[in-house]
Write a structure and sequence with these properties.
470 residues, alpha+beta, 4-stranded mixed beta sheet, 24% helix, disordered C terminus, binds iron/sulfur cluster
Length: 470
Amino acid sequence: MSMFKDIPVEVGVIFEGERIRRNDMQVELGGPTVKQKFELAKVKPMNEIEDGKVTIIGPDLKDMKEGGAFPFGILVEAAGAKLDAGLEGVLERRIHGYLNYIEGFMHLNQRYDIWIRIGKKSFQKGLNSFEPIGKVLYRLFKSELPIVEKLQITFITDPAKLDEMTPIAIQAYESRDAKARGLKDSEVEEFYGCALCQSFAPSHVCVITPQRYSNCGAISWFDGKASASIDPKGPVFAIPRGEMINEEKGEFSGVNEAAKKRSMGEVNKVWLYTAFDHPHTSCGCFEAIAFYIPEVDGLGVVQRNFKGAAVNGLPFSTLADSAAGGRQIDGFHGMSIEYMRSKKFFAADGGWNRIVWVPKEVKEKVKEFIPADVVDKIATEEDAKNVDELKAFLKAKNHPIVARWEAEAAPAAAETAAVTISEEAAGTMMPVATAGSLPIMAGGFKIILKDAKIYANKVIIQTVKDEKKP
Ligand code: SF4
């Protein structure tokens, strides 16, 4: 039943996690085809807020062409005696949760990358203006967070206004992120967990530490702390760090316990500083994904808005599908861009010495955090478009991974090795490859094997010759 009689559609937690397919959508706001998009929360003095005011700058929903995608911004301005700028990140992330309570309203991602769809059915029921959407947002903020005393909301669809506001939003995100840098995981007693994404990824819990930002890139350790203190029953909660089990991999007893409890026993062990064995779970709204490239024994990273295929031939969507849903997949790691600025960024795997490919846009963003002796040795899409080109680039630049190949090649010098599994062993054969979702590209088709386990009587490992060469 709807929470609000004057709103034309139902509103409730039951609609969290609702997906709206392209054919069922009235309009799309932001999303992958639209450049101008953001959501921002700002804390203001009391006298600058008109409580309950909803403003629409630009065309309203009913004026938008059915099936179209439009530029979009949401500005939430709040005031309260106990509110300060340190809580802006917390307020901002609630926009995602509250909007998803609305029937026929899908909100994905965060900050500069929001992606919204309004369903046709809800539009036909009367959800044809931002006015009722603003009312719902206002009421949920006020009822769920009493610390918010006054609130006004602005929806922006006018491209000129979006041009003016977008740099302001980007600057606000950057100053928030910068504040959280410098503190170490070993210097705090508590980490924070966030279960907001469980509506889409039931076994997912983000573990937010000073040196490991949330997957979505929208909640820092400071935001987690603030959120847990103002709304202890909310989706963000404190995780006592507990005993340090493995410093290198980033394993803490408190994190393991929290992951086990919040994932209903699905996840028992989380290693915070590695993409392998027990990596952090991946939800669905991570900003980027790290993926293992076996041919070079290195890791690539690709961000959500990257157009085209990553260096291994797979687009972000396929790579994301391989890990999303709250799973732990060896060699895949949904993560934030901010994590790349951390000294603990895949520290157990070799850190930046293990990163071999990153799109130029991301590399530019994090350049000053990449060690000077490796920064020019990491390929972008301009240096390598496939694994062969990547190998050649890494060799030419003498990337630190090349020394790793040499060390590994020494014991297995033979060009071709064949391993035959005995008949006796075959009865208890172990899978030679397992994957939550294994994509295979062949002849213009993509075949996805879900939860695949592949068994083989014989595994042949041989050097691949370039067939185009004479
Ligand atoms: S990605 Fe993590 S921190 Fe961000 S909303 Fe989802 S669960 Fe919370």
